[in-house]
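[job 4471] stage=fold_predict status=RUNNING
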Amino acid sequence: MKTEIISIGDELLIGQVVNTNAAWIGEQMTMAGIKVYQAVSIADDYDHIFEALKLASERADIVLITGGLGPTKDDITKKTLCDFFDSKLVFNEAVFEDVKEIFRVRGRQVTDLNRKQAEVPDNCTVIRNVHGTAPGMWFEKDGIIFVSMPGVPFEMKPMMTDYIIPELQQRFNLPAIYHKTVLTQGVPESEMAAMIEDWENSLPHNVKLAYLPQPGIVRLRLTASGKNRDKLVALVENEIIKLKKIIGEYIFGFDKDTLEEVVGNLLREKSKTVSSAESCTGGYIAHLITSVAGSSDYYKGSVVSYANEIKSRILGVEEKDIERYGAVSESVVSQMAVGVREKFKTDYAVATSGVAGPTGGTKEKPVGTTWIAVATSDKVFAKQFHFGEHRGRNIRRAALMALDMLRKEL
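[job 4471] inference complete, writing C-alpha coordinates
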Protein backbone atom coordinates (compact mmCIF):
# COMPACT_ATOMS: atom_id res chain seq x y z
CA MET A 1 0.00 0.00 0.00
CA LYS A 2 1.50 3.28 -1.15
CA THR A 3 0.83 6.73 0.26
CA GLU A 4 1.58 10.12 -1.26
CA ILE A 5 1.47 13.40 0.63
CA ILE A 6 0.55 16.61 -1.21
CA SER A 7 1.24 19.86 0.64
CA ILE A 8 -0.40 22.93 -0.88
CA GLY A 9 0.76 26.49 -0.29
CA ASP A 10 2.96 29.14 -1.89
CA GLU A 11 4.43 29.82 1.57
CA LEU A 12 6.01 26.37 1.55
CA LEU A 13 7.78 26.97 -1.75
CA ILE A 14 9.23 30.39 -0.98
CA GLY A 15 10.66 29.31 2.37
CA GLN A 16 8.26 31.40 4.44
CA VAL A 17 6.92 28.33 6.24
CA VAL A 18 8.75 25.05 6.90
CA ASN A 19 6.67 22.04 5.88
CA THR A 20 6.48 20.19 9.19
CA ASN A 21 3.12 18.65 8.25
CA ALA A 22 4.61 16.23 5.73
CA ALA A 23 7.24 15.01 8.19
CA TRP A 24 4.67 14.48 10.94
CA ILE A 25 2.19 12.72 8.64
CA GLY A 26 4.97 10.49 7.32
CA GLU A 27 5.91 9.52 10.86
CA GLN A 28 2.32 8.74 11.84
CA MET A 29 1.62 6.69 8.73
CA THR A 30 4.84 4.72 9.12
CA MET A 31 4.01 3.88 12.73
CA ALA A 32 0.60 2.68 11.53
CA GLY A 33 2.27 0.31 9.07
CA ILE A 34 1.56 2.33 5.92
CA LYS A 35 4.53 3.32 3.79
CA VAL A 36 4.85 6.83 2.38
CA TYR A 37 6.50 6.71 -1.03
CA GLN A 38 6.39 10.35 -2.03
CA ALA A 39 5.74 13.82 -0.65
CA VAL A 40 5.36 16.88 -2.86
CA SER A 41 4.81 20.59 -2.20
CA ILE A 42 2.88 22.60 -4.76
CA ALA A 43 1.59 26.13 -5.25
CA ASP A 44 -1.94 27.41 -4.62
CA ASP A 45 -2.69 27.06 -8.32
CA TYR A 46 -5.65 25.25 -9.90
CA ASP A 47 -3.66 23.55 -12.65
CA HIS A 48 -0.88 22.48 -10.27
CA ILE A 49 -3.31 21.02 -7.76
CA PHE A 50 -5.34 19.21 -10.42
CA GLU A 51 -2.22 17.77 -12.06
CA ALA A 52 -0.81 16.69 -8.68
CA LEU A 53 -4.02 14.84 -7.88
CA LYS A 54 -3.99 13.17 -11.28
CA LEU A 55 -0.37 12.04 -10.96
CA ALA A 56 -0.89 10.83 -7.40
CA SER A 57 -3.87 8.73 -8.49
CA GLU A 58 -1.57 6.90 -10.92
CA ARG A 59 1.00 5.83 -8.32
CA ALA A 60 -0.59 5.78 -4.85
CA ASP A 61 -3.35 3.98 -2.97
CA ILE A 62 -3.80 6.74 -0.40
CA VAL A 63 -3.35 10.45 -1.09
CA LEU A 64 -3.18 12.82 1.88
CA ILE A 65 -3.56 16.52 1.09
CA THR A 66 -2.95 19.48 3.42
CA GLY A 67 -3.50 23.19 2.89
CA GLY A 68 -5.50 25.55 0.73
CA LEU A 69 -8.83 25.20 2.58
CA GLY A 70 -9.17 28.74 3.94
CA PRO A 71 -12.12 31.03 3.19
CA THR A 72 -10.16 33.54 1.09
CA LYS A 73 -9.90 33.70 -2.70
CA ASP A 74 -6.34 32.39 -2.81
CA ASP A 75 -7.43 29.11 -1.24
CA ILE A 76 -8.74 27.15 -4.21
CA THR A 77 -8.26 23.55 -3.13
CA LYS A 78 -11.96 22.95 -2.49
CA LYS A 79 -12.93 24.19 -5.96
CA THR A 80 -10.25 22.00 -7.55
CA LEU A 81 -11.40 18.95 -5.59
CA CYS A 82 -14.95 19.48 -6.84
CA ASP A 83 -13.78 19.45 -10.45
CA PHE A 84 -11.46 16.48 -9.95
CA PHE A 85 -14.16 14.38 -8.30
CA ASP A 86 -17.03 15.62 -10.53
CA SER A 87 -18.91 17.11 -7.61
CA LYS A 88 -20.50 20.37 -6.57
CA LEU A 89 -20.41 22.35 -3.36
CA VAL A 90 -23.35 21.94 -1.00
CA PHE A 91 -24.06 23.57 2.33
CA ASN A 92 -23.49 21.25 5.30
CA GLU A 93 -25.43 22.21 8.40
CA ALA A 94 -23.31 20.09 10.76
CA VAL A 95 -20.13 21.79 9.56
CA PHE A 96 -21.77 25.19 9.98
CA GLU A 97 -22.65 24.34 13.59
CA ASP A 98 -18.95 23.60 14.19
CA VAL A 99 -18.00 26.91 12.58
CA LYS A 100 -20.48 28.81 14.74
CA GLU A 101 -19.21 27.11 17.88
CA ILE A 102 -15.61 28.05 17.07
CA PHE A 103 -16.62 31.69 16.64
CA ARG A 104 -18.80 31.63 19.76
CA VAL A 105 -15.87 30.43 21.87
CA ARG A 106 -13.65 33.14 20.35
CA GLY A 107 -16.27 35.81 20.95
CA ARG A 108 -16.59 36.71 17.26
CA GLN A 109 -19.40 36.96 14.74
CA VAL A 110 -19.67 34.57 11.78
CA THR A 111 -19.35 36.43 8.47
CA ASP A 112 -20.60 35.38 5.03
CA LEU A 113 -17.02 34.44 4.18
CA ASN A 114 -16.85 32.17 7.20
CA ARG A 115 -20.20 30.66 6.30
CA LYS A 116 -18.68 29.44 3.04
CA GLN A 117 -16.44 27.14 5.09
CA ALA A 118 -19.55 25.00 5.59
CA GLU A 119 -19.78 24.33 1.86
CA VAL A 120 -18.31 20.94 0.98
CA PRO A 121 -18.27 18.70 -2.13
CA ASP A 122 -21.46 16.64 -2.27
CA ASN A 123 -19.66 13.30 -2.71
CA CYS A 124 -17.17 13.52 0.17
CA THR A 125 -17.32 12.23 3.72
CA VAL A 126 -16.86 15.18 6.04
CA ILE A 127 -14.25 14.99 8.80
CA ARG A 128 -15.14 17.30 11.66
CA ASN A 129 -12.70 20.02 12.66
CA VAL A 130 -13.24 20.93 16.30
CA HIS A 131 -10.20 23.23 16.34
CA GLY A 132 -10.91 25.36 13.27
CA THR A 133 -13.40 26.25 10.59
CA ALA A 134 -12.20 24.16 7.62
CA PRO A 135 -13.49 20.57 7.70
CA GLY A 136 -11.53 17.62 6.38
CA MET A 137 -12.88 15.77 3.33
CA TRP A 138 -12.57 12.06 2.47
CA PHE A 139 -13.02 11.00 -1.16
CA GLU A 140 -12.77 7.65 -2.90
CA LYS A 141 -12.22 7.28 -6.64
CA ASP A 142 -11.27 4.17 -8.61
CA GLY A 143 -10.28 2.38 -5.42
CA ILE A 144 -7.99 5.21 -4.25
CA ILE A 145 -8.55 7.15 -1.04
CA PHE A 146 -8.02 10.90 -1.08
CA VAL A 147 -8.18 12.91 2.15
CA SER A 148 -7.98 16.70 2.20
CA MET A 149 -7.11 18.39 5.50
CA PRO A 150 -6.37 21.94 6.69
CA GLY A 151 -2.77 23.06 6.60
CA VAL A 152 -2.81 24.38 10.18
CA PRO A 153 -0.98 21.68 12.18
CA PHE A 154 -3.13 21.79 15.33
CA GLU A 155 -6.22 21.33 13.16
CA MET A 156 -4.76 18.63 10.90
CA LYS A 157 -3.18 16.41 13.57
CA PRO A 158 -6.39 15.51 15.46
CA MET A 159 -8.03 14.55 12.16
CA MET A 160 -5.14 12.17 11.45
CA THR A 161 -5.00 10.57 14.89
CA ASP A 162 -8.72 10.54 15.75
CA TYR A 163 -10.28 9.64 12.41
CA ILE A 164 -8.08 9.01 9.39
CA ILE A 165 -5.54 6.52 10.76
CA PRO A 166 -8.16 4.53 12.76
CA GLU A 167 -10.33 4.37 9.62
CA LEU A 168 -7.42 3.10 7.52
CA GLN A 169 -6.51 0.53 10.19
CA GLN A 170 -10.09 -0.71 10.21
CA ARG A 171 -10.26 -1.04 6.43
CA PHE A 172 -6.93 -2.68 5.73
CA ASN A 173 -4.98 -5.58 7.17
CA LEU A 174 -1.89 -3.59 8.02
CA PRO A 175 1.41 -5.17 9.07
CA ALA A 176 2.71 -4.61 12.57
CA ILE A 177 5.63 -2.18 12.66
CA TYR A 178 7.73 -1.29 15.68
CA HIS A 179 10.27 1.54 15.83
CA LYS A 180 12.86 2.10 18.53
CA THR A 181 15.39 4.92 18.30
CA VAL A 182 18.64 4.70 20.23
CA LEU A 183 20.14 8.11 21.04
CA THR A 184 23.93 8.42 21.18
CA GLN A 185 26.34 11.26 21.85
CA GLY A 186 30.09 11.56 21.56
CA VAL A 187 30.86 9.47 18.47
CA PRO A 188 30.58 10.64 14.82
CA GLU A 189 28.37 8.64 12.44
CA SER A 190 31.28 7.05 10.54
CA GLU A 191 33.01 5.90 13.73
CA MET A 192 29.73 4.63 15.10
CA ALA A 193 29.13 2.59 11.95
CA ALA A 194 32.55 0.95 12.28
CA MET A 195 32.00 0.16 15.97
CA ILE A 196 28.67 -1.61 15.42
CA GLU A 197 29.31 -3.12 11.97
CA ASP A 198 29.28 -6.74 13.15
CA TRP A 199 26.15 -6.18 15.22
CA GLU A 200 24.42 -4.46 12.28
CA ASN A 201 25.32 -7.29 9.89
CA SER A 202 23.83 -9.87 12.26
CA LEU A 203 20.44 -8.15 12.67
CA PRO A 204 17.40 -10.35 11.91
CA HIS A 205 16.12 -10.05 8.34
CA ASN A 206 13.00 -8.17 9.43
CA VAL A 207 14.88 -5.56 11.47
CA LYS A 208 16.33 -2.59 9.61
CA LEU A 209 18.77 0.02 10.92
CA ALA A 210 18.87 3.68 9.89
CA TYR A 211 21.51 6.23 10.87
CA LEU A 212 20.00 9.66 11.63
CA PRO A 213 22.83 12.07 12.47
CA GLN A 214 22.45 15.65 13.63
CA PRO A 215 24.99 18.04 15.19
CA GLY A 216 26.29 16.40 18.33
CA ILE A 217 23.98 13.37 18.24
CA VAL A 218 23.63 10.20 16.18
CA ARG A 219 20.25 8.50 16.32
CA LEU A 220 20.06 4.81 15.49
CA ARG A 221 16.52 3.85 14.46
CA LEU A 222 15.58 0.18 14.51
CA THR A 223 12.47 -0.76 12.54
CA ALA A 224 10.96 -4.23 12.80
CA SER A 225 8.04 -5.48 10.72
CA GLY A 226 5.92 -8.59 10.99
CA LYS A 227 2.53 -9.86 12.11
CA ASN A 228 2.79 -9.76 15.90
CA ARG A 229 3.75 -6.46 17.53
CA ASP A 230 4.61 -7.97 20.90
CA LYS A 231 7.12 -10.32 19.27
CA LEU A 232 8.62 -7.39 17.35
CA VAL A 233 9.07 -5.40 20.57
CA ALA A 234 10.82 -8.35 22.21
CA LEU A 235 13.01 -8.85 19.14
CA VAL A 236 14.15 -5.20 19.03
CA GLU A 237 14.71 -4.99 22.78
CA ASN A 238 16.94 -8.06 22.57
CA GLU A 239 19.04 -6.40 19.86
CA ILE A 240 19.34 -3.26 21.99
CA ILE A 241 20.71 -5.35 24.87
CA LYS A 242 23.44 -6.55 22.51
CA LEU A 243 24.06 -2.99 21.30
CA LYS A 244 24.47 -1.67 24.83
CA LYS A 245 27.37 -4.07 25.38
CA ILE A 246 29.18 -2.43 22.45
CA ILE A 247 28.39 1.29 22.78
CA GLY A 248 26.61 1.55 26.12
CA GLU A 249 28.69 4.48 27.34
CA TYR A 250 27.52 6.60 24.39
CA ILE A 251 23.80 5.82 24.71
CA PHE A 252 21.99 8.53 26.66
CA GLY A 253 18.36 7.74 25.88
CA PHE A 254 15.71 6.45 23.53
CA ASP A 255 13.03 7.76 21.16
CA LYS A 256 11.90 11.25 22.27
CA ASP A 257 14.40 11.66 25.11
CA THR A 258 16.64 14.72 25.09
CA LEU A 259 20.03 15.00 26.74
CA GLU A 260 18.88 17.95 28.83
CA GLU A 261 15.90 15.93 30.12
CA VAL A 262 18.07 12.91 30.92
CA VAL A 263 20.58 15.05 32.83
CA GLY A 264 17.78 16.85 34.65
CA ASN A 265 16.19 13.57 35.73
CA LEU A 266 19.52 12.32 37.07
CA LEU A 267 20.07 15.52 39.05
CA ARG A 268 16.55 15.38 40.48
CA GLU A 269 16.85 11.70 41.41
CA LYS A 270 20.10 12.41 43.26
CA SER A 271 18.85 15.70 44.75
CA LYS A 272 21.84 17.51 43.23
CA THR A 273 22.21 20.96 41.68
CA VAL A 274 24.22 22.36 38.78
CA SER A 275 25.38 25.71 37.42
CA SER A 276 27.20 26.67 34.24
CA ALA A 277 29.94 29.03 33.10
CA GLU A 278 29.82 29.66 29.36
CA SER A 279 32.11 31.45 26.98
CA CYS A 280 31.87 30.03 23.43
CA THR A 281 28.37 28.59 23.99
CA GLY A 282 27.05 31.99 25.05
CA GLY A 283 24.28 30.70 27.30
CA TYR A 284 23.15 27.80 25.10
CA ILE A 285 23.73 25.27 27.88
CA ALA A 286 21.51 27.36 30.13
CA HIS A 287 18.91 27.51 27.38
CA LEU A 288 18.86 23.73 26.95
CA ILE A 289 18.62 23.03 30.66
CA THR A 290 15.88 25.59 31.29
CA SER A 291 13.85 24.42 28.29
CA VAL A 292 12.82 21.50 30.51
CA ALA A 293 9.85 22.16 32.78
CA GLY A 294 10.79 21.97 36.45
CA SER A 295 14.49 22.61 35.86
CA SER A 296 14.47 25.11 38.72
CA ASP A 297 14.60 22.06 41.00
CA TYR A 298 18.23 21.48 40.07
CA TYR A 299 19.55 24.40 38.00
CA LYS A 300 20.81 27.51 39.80
CA GLY A 301 22.02 29.70 36.94
CA SER A 302 24.83 30.66 34.61
CA VAL A 303 27.61 33.15 34.08
CA VAL A 304 28.16 33.96 30.41
CA SER A 305 31.78 35.01 30.77
CA TYR A 306 32.39 35.97 27.16
CA ALA A 307 35.02 38.58 27.98
CA ASN A 308 38.25 37.62 29.72
CA GLU A 309 37.72 40.31 32.35
CA ILE A 310 34.47 38.58 33.38
CA LYS A 311 36.27 35.25 33.61
CA SER A 312 38.69 36.86 36.05
CA ARG A 313 36.50 39.33 37.95
CA ILE A 314 33.38 37.18 38.36
CA LEU A 315 34.69 33.61 38.19
CA GLY A 316 38.11 34.09 39.74
CA VAL A 317 40.17 32.87 36.79
CA GLU A 318 43.81 33.92 37.23
CA GLU A 319 44.74 36.65 34.74
CA LYS A 320 48.24 35.26 34.40
CA ASP A 321 46.80 31.91 33.27
CA ILE A 322 44.72 33.62 30.59
CA GLU A 323 47.85 35.44 29.40
CA ARG A 324 49.99 32.32 29.52
CA TYR A 325 47.62 29.64 28.20
CA GLY A 326 44.91 31.67 26.49
CA ALA A 327 41.19 31.74 27.24
CA VAL A 328 40.71 28.49 25.30
CA SER A 329 42.71 26.22 27.56
CA GLU A 330 42.40 23.49 30.17
CA SER A 331 43.55 25.78 32.96
CA VAL A 332 41.07 28.55 32.22
CA VAL A 333 38.01 26.36 31.61
CA SER A 334 38.73 24.35 34.76
CA GLN A 335 38.89 27.53 36.83
CA MET A 336 35.65 28.71 35.25
CA ALA A 337 33.88 25.52 36.33
CA VAL A 338 35.28 25.71 39.87
CA GLY A 339 34.50 29.42 40.12
CA VAL A 340 30.84 29.18 39.11
CA ARG A 341 30.25 26.12 41.30
CA GLU A 342 31.60 27.95 44.34
CA LYS A 343 29.81 31.20 43.52
CA PHE A 344 26.42 29.53 43.01
CA LYS A 345 27.00 26.88 45.72
CA THR A 346 25.98 23.96 43.49
CA ASP A 347 26.99 20.31 43.60
CA TYR A 348 28.17 20.33 39.98
CA ALA A 349 29.20 22.87 37.37
CA VAL A 350 30.03 22.74 33.67
CA ALA A 351 32.11 25.25 31.73
CA THR A 352 32.98 25.86 28.09
CA SER A 353 35.61 27.95 26.32
CA GLY A 354 36.38 27.65 22.63
CA VAL A 355 36.83 29.16 19.19
CA ALA A 356 33.31 28.97 17.77
CA GLY A 357 34.30 30.60 14.46
CA PRO A 358 34.21 31.34 11.68
CA THR A 359 37.03 33.72 12.65
CA GLY A 360 39.43 33.80 15.58
CA GLY A 361 41.25 30.55 14.94
CA THR A 362 45.03 30.13 14.94
CA LYS A 363 47.40 27.41 13.82
CA GLU A 364 47.64 26.16 17.39
CA LYS A 365 43.93 26.60 18.10
CA PRO A 366 41.92 26.36 14.85
CA VAL A 367 38.21 27.15 14.65
CA GLY A 368 36.25 24.50 16.51
CA THR A 369 38.84 23.99 19.26
CA THR A 370 36.89 23.78 22.51
CA TRP A 371 37.69 22.97 26.12
CA ILE A 372 34.92 21.69 28.38
CA ALA A 373 35.18 21.17 32.13
CA VAL A 374 33.05 19.58 34.85
CA ALA A 375 33.56 20.46 38.50
CA THR A 376 32.32 18.49 41.50
CA SER A 377 32.84 18.95 45.23
CA ASP A 378 36.14 17.07 45.15
CA LYS A 379 37.53 17.32 41.63
CA VAL A 380 37.53 19.10 38.26
CA PHE A 381 38.34 17.55 34.92
CA ALA A 382 38.47 18.96 31.40
CA LYS A 383 38.64 17.64 27.85
CA GLN A 384 39.61 19.22 24.56
CA PHE A 385 37.51 18.80 21.40
CA HIS A 386 37.71 19.85 17.76
CA PHE A 387 34.18 20.32 16.47
CA GLY A 388 34.69 21.84 13.01
CA GLU A 389 34.30 25.17 11.28
CA HIS A 390 30.57 25.96 11.47
CA ARG A 391 29.76 28.35 14.31
CA GLY A 392 26.20 27.20 14.97
CA ARG A 393 27.10 23.52 14.96
CA ASN A 394 30.12 24.16 17.18
CA ILE A 395 27.97 25.88 19.79
CA ARG A 396 25.41 23.07 19.83
CA ARG A 397 28.03 20.32 19.86
CA ALA A 398 29.88 21.96 22.73
CA ALA A 399 26.70 22.35 24.78
CA LEU A 400 25.65 18.76 24.19
CA MET A 401 29.11 17.45 24.98
CA ALA A 402 29.13 19.42 28.24
CA LEU A 403 25.79 17.91 29.21
CA ASP A 404 26.97 14.43 28.28
CA MET A 405 30.15 14.79 30.34
CA LEU A 406 27.93 15.78 33.26
CA ARG A 407 25.60 12.83 32.55
CA LYS A 408 28.48 10.37 32.68
CA GLU A 409 29.78 11.88 35.91
CA LEU A 410 26.30 11.62 37.44
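[job 4471] summary: The chain has a mean pLDDT of 95.
[job 4471] exit 0
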